[in-house]
Amino acid sequence: MSLLPDSIRARTTIAVTALSLLFLSMIGASLDFLALDRGEAAVYQEAQRAATNWVGTFKPGSTPLPAGEGRVNLLQLVDSHGHVELASPAAARLRPLGTAQPPPDNRIEDQVVCPRHGRCLMVTAVRLPPLETKEIWHGVPHFVYAGMVQPPLLASHLLEWLTAGGVLLLTGLIAWGNWWVGGRTLRTVEGIRSTMAEITASDLSLRVPEPHGHNEFANLACTANQTLDRLEEAVRQQSRFASTTSHELRTPLTGLRTRLEEAMMYPGDVDPRQAIQDSLLVTRRLEMIVDDLLVLARLRAGDPAAHEPLDLGDLVEDEVTAMAGGPPVDMRVARGLIVRGSRIQLVRLIGNLLANARRHAESRIEVTAGRDDEYAVITVTDDGDGIAPADRERVFERFVRLESGRRREPGGSGLGLAISRDIALAHDGTLRVEDSPYGARFALRLPLIPAAPHRPLSLGTSPAGGDSDPSADAATSG
C-alpha cells in the first residue's frame, strides 16, 4: 500500500517540494559555510595586521604600548612562560589571550579561545622574528596576541537559523507555486472528466472545453472532441441502421403474415401451392437479409479471415462465367494480378458488383481487370440509368436502394454494396463510383503483391448464360 496520495497534483507537489528542499538545503549549507569562513578570515586578517603593525614599532630599548586598530582592541606581548609584559588598555587586566606559541617556521597561528566565563575570543598569535627576540629580549621567545571578541554572527547560530528559514520559505513558495500551477494545468483534465461524466448514450452532443494554444492538454481536448464526434455519428448511424433494419424485416414479415392469415381465413379463395411459394420467397428474402447482416457485422467487427495469394483476374473470369441470365458481358482481364486476400470475401465482392450491374444494365455489361501502379483495378460498367453524383456515396450505405433499383428488382437485401465496400476496406483497398460516359461504373482497387509479373489482357465476350474463353490472350490498344 503506497503512502503517497492518489492525486497526480499532490504527488507532483510532494516530489517537487522534496527535491527543492534537498537542493536549497545544499545551497544554503554551502552559502552558510562560505559566509562563516569568509567572516573568520576577515577577523583573523584584521588581527594579524594589527599584530604586525605593533611588532613593527618594536626597537631595542623602546617597546611602545599598543593602541589597537579597528575592531581589534585586545593586544598582548607574552613571553614563552606565559607572562604578559605589555598589553593594550582593554587587555591589561586579562590573562594571556591565548595559549598558542607558533614555531619559528610558521610564525602565525589563529585560534578561538573560549574562557569559562565570558564570550569567546578570536585570537591571532604572531611569533616575533629572531632578530627582535635576540636584540630586545636576549633570545627569549616572545609572542604577540591580537584578538577581539567573537562577532555575534560567528559566535551564535544566527546565520544557520536565517539560512534554514530562507530555505523553508523558498521551499514553501515553490510548493505553493507548483500546487497552483498544477491546479491550473489539470483544470483542463478535470473539465474533460466532468464533461465526459455528464455524457450519456441518449445525449452525445456535449463537448469538452478546448483550451487555447497547442500544448498537450489542448491536443487531448481536441482528440476527445473528435472521438465524441465519431461516437455520436456512430450511434446515430447505429440508430438509423436499427430503424431501417426493423423496417426492412417488418415489411416482408407483415406480408408473410397477411398472406398466411388470408390462406387460413379464406381457404377456398387461396391456392395453397401459390401461398406456399409466396411464403418461401419471403422467407428466402428474410434469410438473405439476415445472412447479409451477419456478414456485415463480421466485417465491421474486424473478424480476421484467412488471406492467401490470389489471381484477381481468375476470380473475375470465374464469376463472369458463372453468372447466369442478363445481358452479355464484355470482359478484358489482365493476367498476373496477384493480391492477398480472402477468396470467399473477394468472390462475394465481385459477385455483388456483377449482380448490381445485371440489375441495372439495358443491353450490355463491361468488366475490366488491370493494374494501376501498385494496385489491381477492377471496373464493372453497365449501360443503365447511371448514378447521380449526389448518390455515389449514398449507394454504399446499408439498405439504400435507388428508385431505379427498386423498380427493376424490389426483392434485394439492400446490403450488397455496403458489404462490398467493407470487404474492399478489409483488404486495404477502395471501392467507389467513377465517372462513365454511360451507365454506372464501379471501380475496385486492391494492393498488388510486390513483384507480380505483368502479362497481356485476356479478351472475351460472355453472352448471358454462355461460355467465354478466358485463356485467349490478345493485344489491346488503348
Task: Characterise the protein shown here.
This protein is of the alpha+beta class. It folds into 3 domains: 9-158, Beta-Lactamase, CATH 3.30.450; 217-301, Helix Hairpins (Orthogonal Bundle); 308-462, Heat Shock Protein 90, CATH 3.30.565. Helix content is 47%, strand content 17%. It has 10 helices and 13 strands. It has helices at 8-55, 130-137, 152-155, 158-198, 216-265, 272-301, 312-322, 343-360, 403-408, 416-426; strands at 74-79, 84-87, 108-113, 121-127, 142-149, 308-311, 329-334, 338-341, 365-372, 375-382, 430-434, 441-447, 457-462. The strands form 3 sheets. Strands 11-12-10-9-7-13 form a 6-stranded mixed β-sheet. Strand 1 (74-79) and strand 2 form a beta hairpin. The chain is rod-shaped. It starts with 7 loop residues before the first helix and ends in a 16-residue tail after the last strand. The model is unreliable at 463-478 (pLDDT under 50).
Q: Major sheet, described briefly? A: 6 strands, mixed
Shape: rod-shaped
Query: Residue-averaged pLDDT, rounded?
Result: 81
Instruction: Give the end-to-end Cα distance, rounded to a whole number of Å.
Output: 76 Å
Low-confidence segments:
463-478
Structural class: alpha+beta
CATH architecture of the largest domain: 2-Layer Sandwich
Rg, rounded, reads: 51 Å
* Secondary structure tally: strands: 13
What is the CATH topology classification name of the largest domain? Heat Shock Protein 90
Strand line-up of the largest beta sheet: 11-12-10-9-7-13
Which superfamily, in CATH terms, is the homologous superfamily of the largest domain? Histidine kinase-like ATPase, C-terminal domain
Number of helices: 10
Please write the CATH class name of the largest domain: Alpha Beta
**H/E series, N to C?**
HEEEEHEHHHHEHEEHEEHHEEE
Tell me roughly what share of residues is in helical segments.
40-55%
Enzyme class: transferase
Protein name: histidine kinase
GO cellular component, one term: plasma membrane
InterPro entries: HAMP_dom, HATPase_C_sf, HATPase_dom, His_kinase_dom, HisK_dim/P_dom, HisK_dim/P_sf, Sig_transdc_His_kin-like_C, TCS_sensor_his_kinase
